[in-house]
Amino acid sequence: MSTNAAMAETAALVGDPARAAMLNALMDGRALTAGELAGVAGITAQTASGHLARLAAAGLLAMERQGRHRYHRLATPAVARMLEAIMTVAGAAPPPARPPRIGPADAAMRRARTCYDHLAGRLGVAIAEAMVARGQLELAPDGGAVTPAGEDFLESLGIRPQPGTRRAFCKPCLDWSERRHHLAGGLGAALCTRCFELGWVKRVPASRTVLVTRAGEAGLRQAFGIELA
After folding, report:
1. At residue 100, does pLDDT exceed 50?
2. What's the predicted TM-score (pTM) here?
3. Cβ contacts of residue 209 below 8 Å, gap of 6+?
């Protein structure tokens, strides 16, 4: 299949509202069953299975079997980056004549959420910008690097770079709600995992939203010098 045809096919797959809803539900890095994804999309389990098969055939989803259940997840971080980029472009479109009312759930997601396996929203952007301001991180639109001071800082948090992996350790990801960069790659994933391990953030069930705990408010203030209003 030519590059143009493959791009058109991928765009068509993502462009279906039900498939878009299922892909968005997987953006927090979890694996979900066809039934769970059907509920998210508001369609029958049979219809969901057909959609999931097409997404898997296109390389957008991966499936793993555990016991009687089949679990679906985004196939690669590249798929998550593509979806986040689409959200960025979609969010930049002119607002409708009567803009929708934004509720508390939307505000919470803009404050802090997961983007596949790393932190996003105001929290993710604040962490990235704090590390850059302190000279711990060098970040450009097309890549990034951890400085020696950053290596010492990460080690103090219990994070050590994993050399030899195929995945880029430090890279920016344009945040669709903040329009600034948060951290992706191995470093973004490691920081996200560590924040969960330390109890600084916790998941909101059935959502990409994460909540900053009281311990997290203190920990983030001490480690990064940031406070979220």
Report:
1. no
2. 0.67
3. 105, 108, 109, 112, 113, 203
